[in-house]
Amino acid sequence: MTEVSRTSREVEAEGGVPEIAVAPTPTPYRLAKRTLDVMASSVGLILTSPLMLAVAAAIRMESRGSVLFRQERVGLGGRTFMLYKFRTMHATADQETHRRHVEQLIRGAPSDGDEAAISAGSTWLPLEQDPRVTRVGRFLRRSHLDELPQLINVLRGEMSVVGPRPPIPYEVEVYEPWHLRRLSVVPGLTGLWQVRGWGKLSFDDGVALDLEYIKNRSFLVDVQIVLRTLWQILRGRQF
């Protein structure tokens, strides 16, 4: 497992994002993983193109603003890239709410869905109660269709099908040094954290699962995570 010897405050790359050592990856696995990514993203974009056009039309009909939501994320080695999603909130939605929420989670505040957190003034709101989310956006989030444009990120090599989810730069700013290890591999659409306990675990426990994946990753493990993710999506589980 790749060790991070300096904190995010001691080593910063362009844009204030920490530089992280990249975990060594055996060439056969790297080539197999990239082949899976290219094939899955290419086929996925082709097969879902009619669906994505319908989603884009629904978003445009309900609210003004761009169909796509673009957001800077932190990827391999602490390098940033622009992540694409379908917009699920009103174009004027305040992103500061999310920033305060993730900072609470990373620092050990109660997790999503915790009634104590809500009564204590947590900035988290259930999907049905969040006024920033549009009606179409609620459906897209529950069905995970808002994630489809990230297939573009996978095709471009900025993301993989499987890997730790890419954080927002302001999340990384409050990481502990050991949290940074999850940035030592290419981020993914889904990962071990998502299939084992997303929304049920503390941030530290979730990162521990990401690090477990990094330590034991293989092509077979990736395929197993993809299959478990598809099954859970079919069951209507939220990530």
Report on this structure.
The chain is mainly alpha-helical. It has one domain. The chain contains nine helices and four strands, in the order H-E-E-H-H-H-H-E-H-E-H-H-H. It has helices at 27-62, 96-106, 115-119, 135-143, 150-155, 169-172, 192-197, 203-216, 219-234; strands at residues 68-74, 80-86, 160-162, 188-190. A two-stranded antiparallel ribbon has the order 1-2. Strands 3-4 form a two-stranded parallel ribbon. Helix 6 (169-172) links the parallel strand 3 (160-162) and strand 4 (188-190). The longest helix is centred in the N-terminal third of the chain and has 36 residues, at 27-62. The relative contact order is 0.17.
Question: H/E order of the elements?
Answer: HEEHHHHEHEHHH
Helix content: 40-55%
What's the number of extended β-strand segments? 4
Number of separate domains: 1
SSE inventory with pairings:
Elements: H1 27-62, E1 68-74, E2 80-86, H2 96-106, H3 115-119, H4 135-143, H5 150-155, E3 160-162, H6 169-172, E4 188-190, H7 192-197, H8 203-216, H9 219-234
Parallel strand pairs: 3-4
Antiparallel strand pairs: 1-2
